[in-house]
Write a structure and sequence with these properties.
By secondary structure, the protein is an alpha+beta fold. 24% of the residues lie in helices and 26% in strands. Strand 12 and strand 13 form a beta hairpin. It starts with 27 loop residues before the first strand and ends with a helix.
């Protein structure tokens, strides 16, 4: 079968000036340098406002693919091995064989960093879709190309206000589903479940949404991983109903190294609302404190264990 379509999305990726109404763990400081960044798309580099991909790509038609993202410090992709482990695991789970091995993809990532002459305050997203399809249809049998690879590096520094103000979390009715429905452990391009939860949370006045699993236990947030602290012990879920968290695991490791009790267990909302502190983790924001969950308020001060964990985590980045 030969693929002859040459139709492309006509609207390019454009840098918008964002106005933030509420705090988010993904808030960032706007950087004018992003107008000239070079984005990798299937073998070529494009200036941001020229970056494009076919409307027949699996990412566009079906959200069919996986992704990972991480930060660049001193020209290095932090925890790259962990990110590639997760990426290739997710590729296997969706039966998508990438034509590049880990070393080749790693070289491509660093080539993108070098071409953009980037050193610090950089966030990079790596997207793998199943590739071009000959027609809009779910079957993998109509895929007529190698998987598509998109690498987007941005100057993206977290907004320091999120660490001082903290996040408002609200519980939502949208849950993290079962593994044999749409596996919530896969970091897929199809994020509709999380998007719906995010919108629901915003409508309730929250910055992010705290989601339950199928058994009524707290699972995770719509875009970050959740922890709470009680009596200087740290608690997080078992991780069954959430994406494998790179930063999440680093915090668990930090707790063990510093002899802080850390528990991965099932827990209900009532336990969370009785906590002393709460925080979230993610590759972009690192460790971000929570100032409230529903009507429960937390006091944020420099002596909180959350900020000590944040400090220890940031030392790993240097």
């Amino acid at each position: 079968m030969q693929f002859k379509y040459t139709v492309f999305i006509t609207r390019p990726i454009i840098l918008f000036k964002l106005i933030f109404i509420m705090v988010s763990s993904h808030d960032f400081e706007e950087d004018k340098r992003n107008k000239k960044i070079k984005i990798y798309v299937n073998g070529k580099y494009y200036i941001r406002d020229k970056a494009k991909i076919s409307v027949f790509d699996s990412s566009v038609l079906l959200g069919d693919g996986v992704w990972t993202s991480g930060r660049i410090y001193n020209g290095n992709f932090i925890f790259l091995k962990d990110h590639l482990d997760r990426l290739y695991k997710d590729l296997k789970l969706i039966s998508l064989k990438l034509h590049l091995n880990r070393k080749e993809l790693s070289n491509l990532i660093y080539k993108t960093i070098k071409i953009n002459k980037m050193k610090n305050d950089v966030h990079m997203r790596i997207i793998i879709s199943r590739g071009l399809r000959s027609t809009p249809y779910q079957s993998e049998k109509v895929v007529v190309s190698n998987p598509s690879i998109i690498i987007i590096p941005e100057y993206k520094k977290p907004n320091v206000k999120i660490y001082k103000k903290g996040l408002r979390l609200v519980t939502v009715s949208t849950i993290r589903g079962n593994l044999n429905a749409q596996n919530p452990q896969i970091n897929s391009l199809s994020k509709l479940n999380c998007i719906i939860a995010c919108i629901e949370g915003h409508k309730k006045g929250g910055d992010e949404s705290l989601m339950f699993d199928i058994n009524g236990n707290i699972a995770t947030n719509n875009s970050t991983h959740f922890f709470y602290i009680k009596n200087n012990s740290v608690y997080t879920s078992k991780g069954k109903y959430q994406v494998t968290g790179i930063t999440r695991q680093k915090i668990i490791d930090i707790c063990k190294k510093n002899k802080i009790k850390v528990f991965q267990k099932n827990f209900k909302l009532a336990e969370v609302l009785n906590a002393d502190e709460a925080f979230v983790t993610g590759s972009f924001g690192g460790v971000v404190p929570v100032n409230s969950i529903n009507k429960k308020k937390f006091k944020l001060n420099k002596n909180n264990l959350t900020y000590q964990l944040k400090s220890w985590y940031e030392k790993l980045l240097k």
